[in-house]
Amino acid sequence: MLSAVGIIAEYNPFHNGHAYQLQLAKQRTNADVVVAVMSGNWVQRGAPAIVDKWVRTEMALAMGVDLVVELPVFDAVQPADLFARGAVRIVDQLQCDSLAFGCEHADYDFAQLGRIAVDDDQAHFRDYQQPYPALIQAAINEQFGININQPNDILALNYAQAVHQLDSKMQLVPIERVGSRHHDADFNGALASASAIRKAILSRSIKTVQPYLPAPVYSLLQNHNYLDLSAFWSIIRYQLVMTPLDELNQRYQMTEGLEYRLKEAAIKHAKFKEFMSAIKTKRYTYSRLQRLLVYVLLQANQDDFIHHDPYLRVLGFNPTGQQYLNQVKSQIDWPIISKIDQSMLKSVIKTEFNAGMLIQMKNGQYQDLYRHPIIKK
Amino acid sequence: MLSAVGIIAEYNPFHNGHAYQLQLAKQRTNADVVVAVMSGNWVQRGAPAIVDKWVRTEMALAMGVDLVVELPVFDAVQPADLFARGAVRIVDQLQCDSLAFGCEHADYDFAQLGRIAVDDDQAHFRDYQQPYPALIQAAINEQFGININQPNDILALNYAQAVHQLDSKMQLVPIERVGSRHHDADFNGALASASAIRKAILSRSIKTVQPYLPAPVYSLLQNHNYLDLSAFWSIIRYQLVMTPLDELNQRYQMTEGLEYRLKEAAIKHAKFKEFMSAIKTKRYTYSRLQRLLVYVLLQANQDDFIHHDPYLRVLGFNPTGQQYLNQVKSQIDWPIISKIDQSMLKSVIKTEFNAGMLIQMKNGQYQDLYRHPIIKK
């Protein structure tokens, strides 16, 4: 019987910090297998991954992940709580014994924090005039005297809440992040955040990021069409201009008349940056707005992103990962998808297929149809 | 009282043949005013005009047209009979005394042919296994021993039918086309068809067409982003791939399950030419399919292209044209639109605005909002 540790990741791209996390996750859990649940072609902050999911699966496998399973677009492009819930559900389905995650404060008892945040009388939060996550943070601060206000601590809390809500037996393994905070734009030793790395690749060149990437990853990153949401601006603009308001307002998360604001700005502004500045208000973060633009691109409504049947999509594995998959197969309730044919395009995979076609139309590489999992010998 | 001759045109672009037609139309009718009803940004065969409607209005005014009125996209991007009906209705509203048009056989009595084709017992046509225009042509051949099988003769017949159907008093003025048949791909003296000219501009260079264009037109044609339907391929493909089948099949003219054929081909083919070959069958002409792609681009349903309220949109005039417009204004039943503000975007102008935004997103020039008619001194 192989034991497994699960990791939730975007690997956008895989960098030295991820390698460090992977190593510690193995050491601390003594697991035989590392399972990564990885965002597919679109990531949580509402953007395409810088390279497609197949290249990023290659990276993960090259760096020691044994099994890569896709976090579907309807779970990945979501606010942190829904992202965490979708991902944890998959890790749990995969029968992992533990879940390892990076955070700023590995000394916090996340299992306890997750329990308390969820079980606390939620009615009492409703009195506040603040968003729900802020309320939970305030409650935790009141009860424990600690601050959950850094990005990876917040995500860790979301994982812990999801594990508790799902009544999962998975052990939580917080791993202290080193060297670089998530949003650091500058490089720091051999560790740089994924966001700083992406920025450098997109605005400068791939060469500038070599020190911050494991050698196999650097090699796999060569010669791709590096994508950002701005690569889809002409299509986003087209959609916002052309689609009638009463259809635009059907899009997932198109609340409070945002469709008027978006359409007006799209008619007026020819450049993506100017458009984004025009729609930004204090009320909405850039991530919230960018995710909304992804839903517009996908022509996706509430049903596509909330009421969908679950499935497991295998992106790649090595012999250990394959052995583990065989071991747990019978305990998995969901359909396991390893290749996609035409007949499945109306099925659960529909939204993922559309999300993949957006990428395929840019990079010319098949994303779903005709693709088999990557097998690393 | 000024008398006026109407011309229905696309001026895509204006060429020596159009100049010849204009001159003869004036000579033969002795009209004081030439009114052109011109396709806007999109033309009958299902494509964007090579340059936008404002540049083409400048051309028409430079070459002696006194008043240019827009043929709205819902009339322009239609099969020949609906194109003719929409255009003739506008010429008639503009109180023109006559309608001049080019044709291969100016000796035919089009007024009579138009009457007969329409009034003949249409039930008797239903026995045939042929499309309606072919049946009319057969009936005319039977009755008069003449063949209406060349493109401009066919269009002329459609004009004649529309004039008769509308019970218009306009006189028909057929003008023999010289030098070049409509579809000739090669140049012939100083006359070349608009289609040969477009092809040369798009595939070779603007310089190669200088001999076939009046000097003012050649000058106005410089330094534009020359458009063809293929310029919109990435958006067409996006729409076909992303839009659900049950929404695609709501598009105007999306009949007989064409949505399946189009979606499948769009998923498969990355190049426009290959896509077009894949969807082409004997059943549908390229023009029919290209028009369908324009409806897809416009996200336009039956209502947008069939059940719309009429209006007159003035694109440009010289002092004579302005005087004429003032003379006939009180006899025009439709709203006359000369400039468009935000409040009109939900009105009759909606489809035209969308059609213009497609062009504006390519060439960066305002097409409808903030545009006033061009006034030539």
TrEMBL record, chains A, B:
<keyword id="KW-0820">tRNA-binding</keyword>
<comment type="similarity">
    <text>Belongs to the TmcAL family.</text>
</comment>
<dbReference type="InterPro" id="IPR014729">
    <property type="entry name" value="Rossmann-like_a/b/a_fold"/>
</dbReference>
<feature type="binding site">
    <location>
        <position position="152"/>
    </location>
    <ligand>
        <name>ATP</name>
    </ligand>
</feature>
<feature type="binding site">
    <location>
        <begin position="8"/>
        <end position="21"/>
    </location>
    <ligand>
        <name>ATP</name>
    </ligand>
</feature>
<comment type="function">
    <text>Catalyzes the formation of N(4)-acetylcytidine (ac(4)C) at the wobble position of elongator tRNA(Met), using acetate and ATP as substrates. First activates an acetate ion to form acetyladenylate (Ac-AMP) and then transfers the acetyl group to tRNA to form ac(4)C34.</text>
</comment>
<dbReference type="Pfam" id="PF05636">
    <property type="entry name" value="HIGH_NTase1"/>
</dbReference>
<feature type="binding site">
    <location>
        <position position="102"/>
    </location>
    <ligand>
        <name>ATP</name>
    </ligand>
</feature>
<feature type="binding site">
    <location>
        <position position="177"/>
    </location>
    <ligand>
        <name>ATP</name>
    </ligand>
</feature>
<keyword id="KW-0067">ATP-binding</keyword>
<keyword id="KW-0694">RNA-binding</keyword>
<protein>
    <recommendedName>
        <fullName>tRNA(Met) cytidine acetate ligase</fullName>
        <ecNumber>6.3.4.-</ecNumber>
    </recommendedName>
</protein>
<dbReference type="InterPro" id="IPR008513">
    <property type="entry name" value="tRNA(Met)_cyd_acetate_ligase"/>
</dbReference>
<keyword id="KW-0963">Cytoplasm</keyword>
<keyword id="KW-0547">Nucleotide-binding</keyword>
<keyword id="KW-0436">Ligase</keyword>
<keyword id="KW-0819">tRNA processing</keyword>
